[in-house]
Amino acid sequence: MTVSPDAVVLVAGSANLDFAVRAPHVPAAGETVLGHGFATFPGGKGANQAVACARAGGARTRMLLALGEDAFAAPVEASLREAGVTCEIVRVRDAATGTAFVCVSDDGENAITVTPGANARLHPAHLPALDGVRCLLLQLETPLPTVVAWARAARVAGVTVILNAAPAQALPAELLTAVDVLVVNEGELATVAGHRGGIAADLAAIDVAEVIVTLGARGCCARLDGGLHVQPGFRVDAVDTTAAGDTFCGTLAAAIARGLPVAEALRRACAASALACTRHGAQASVPAADEVDALLAGFADPAGDAYDDLAAYCAAAR
């Protein structure tokens, strides 16, 4: 896929080393579960999304990140560079590289605990010049005041701001007014909207031009120009949902930077996210553009009933 020189995405956010264990199920509070597999993977929402954006093709991807001066930093940086991401690294001497502890159940669900480490040392002044940047992609694993400052600087510069509001938290109005595209899952949507009702009602309650909610295997729903657009998901055999949402966000950002129609951008993002669920790990699970193309070519568009069922699900009160 040809990369457009004008399609540049800057991802500013977190980078971690993930410590992942497989287990029959995710432990409940106070429960001990015997695992049956362990591995380390480069991760972090920001880094995962940067890898997904780079692999999506058609856009150049840069990333602003912070790493400690420790052994955990090397595999994180190497994974980004191998994916084709241009790294702009803040080296932190007195904090470790961020880490995450991930439990993945045998049915593909996960529970994650994150220790921010160096990610917490990213400041507003670290944002590089935005000349030539079309989209700025942000998450919430770095300090909220820093995210707000970055979003506002991008808005002033005329850069499209995409925010993945994860992990879930209430967001200040000064951040929402600087965001062009907000991406959330169902739980994050309820938190940002104040949990007013059904998905459609919650989407309407958020003062951002475009709001997209990912719905797992169901697909996604977007509020665009005052109306709803739904995209059914792609049926796959899921083994690990880690980084599925990050894959969606990175693929979406690349598509927006390329100027693709929203419907096509959402379809590609859903397809890439589905493929990510068929593999273990975070960045290791992110598909390449040709894999997404192959999945889309092999799937006929869902029947009208699939769209109607998803629209009904989004409209229903919770």
TrEMBL record:
<feature type="binding site">
    <location>
        <position position="279"/>
    </location>
    <ligand>
        <name>K(+)</name>
    </ligand>
</feature>
<feature type="domain" description="Carbohydrate kinase PfkB">
    <location>
        <begin position="9"/>
        <end position="288"/>
    </location>
</feature>
<comment type="pathway">
    <text>Carbohydrate metabolism; D-ribose degradation; D-ribose 5-phosphate from beta-D-ribopyranose: step 2/2.</text>
</comment>
<keyword id="KW-0547">Nucleotide-binding</keyword>
<keyword id="KW-0963">Cytoplasm</keyword>
<feature type="binding site">
    <location>
        <begin position="214"/>
        <end position="219"/>
    </location>
    <ligand>
        <name>ATP</name>
    </ligand>
</feature>
<feature type="active site" description="Proton acceptor">
    <location>
        <position position="246"/>
    </location>
</feature>
<dbReference type="InterPro" id="IPR002139">
    <property type="entry name" value="Ribo/fructo_kinase"/>
</dbReference>
<feature type="binding site">
    <location>
        <position position="281"/>
    </location>
    <ligand>
        <name>K(+)</name>
    </ligand>
</feature>
<keyword id="KW-0808">Transferase</keyword>
<feature type="binding site">
    <location>
        <position position="240"/>
    </location>
    <ligand>
        <name>K(+)</name>
    </ligand>
</feature>
<feature type="binding site">
    <location>
        <begin position="245"/>
        <end position="246"/>
    </location>
    <ligand>
        <name>ATP</name>
    </ligand>
</feature>
<feature type="binding site">
    <location>
        <position position="141"/>
    </location>
    <ligand>
        <name>substrate</name>
    </ligand>
</feature>
<dbReference type="InterPro" id="IPR011611">
    <property type="entry name" value="PfkB_dom"/>
</dbReference>
<feature type="binding site">
    <location>
        <position position="276"/>
    </location>
    <ligand>
        <name>K(+)</name>
    </ligand>
</feature>
<keyword id="KW-0119">Carbohydrate metabolism</keyword>
<dbReference type="InterPro" id="IPR029056">
    <property type="entry name" value="Ribokinase-like"/>
</dbReference>
<feature type="binding site">
    <location>
        <begin position="44"/>
        <end position="48"/>
    </location>
    <ligand>
        <name>substrate</name>
    </ligand>
</feature>
<keyword id="KW-0460">Magnesium</keyword>
<feature type="binding site">
    <location>
        <position position="246"/>
    </location>
    <ligand>
        <name>substrate</name>
    </ligand>
</feature>
<dbReference type="InterPro" id="IPR011877">
    <property type="entry name" value="Ribokinase"/>
</dbReference>
<keyword id="KW-0630">Potassium</keyword>
<keyword id="KW-0479">Metal-binding</keyword>
<keyword id="KW-0418">Kinase</keyword>
<feature type="binding site">
    <location>
        <position position="285"/>
    </location>
    <ligand>
        <name>K(+)</name>
    </ligand>
</feature>
<comment type="similarity">
    <text>Belongs to the carbohydrate kinase PfkB family. Ribokinase subfamily.</text>
</comment>
<protein>
    <recommendedName>
        <fullName>Ribokinase</fullName>
        <ecNumber>2.7.1.15</ecNumber>
    </recommendedName>
</protein>
<dbReference type="Pfam" id="PF00294">
    <property type="entry name" value="PfkB"/>
</dbReference>
<feature type="binding site">
    <location>
        <position position="185"/>
    </location>
    <ligand>
        <name>ATP</name>
    </ligand>
</feature>
<keyword id="KW-0067">ATP-binding</keyword>
<comment type="subunit">
    <text>Homodimer.</text>
</comment>
<feature type="binding site">
    <location>
        <begin position="16"/>
        <end position="18"/>
    </location>
    <ligand>
        <name>substrate</name>
    </ligand>
</feature>
<dbReference type="GO" id="GO:0004747">
    <property type="term" value="F:ribokinase activity"/>
</dbReference>
<feature type="binding site">
    <location>
        <position position="242"/>
    </location>
    <ligand>
        <name>K(+)</name>
    </ligand>
</feature>
<comment type="function">
    <text>Catalyzes the phosphorylation of ribose at O-5 in a reaction requiring ATP and magnesium. The resulting D-ribose-5-phosphate can then be used either for sythesis of nucleotides, histidine, and tryptophan, or as a component of the pentose phosphate pathway.</text>
</comment>
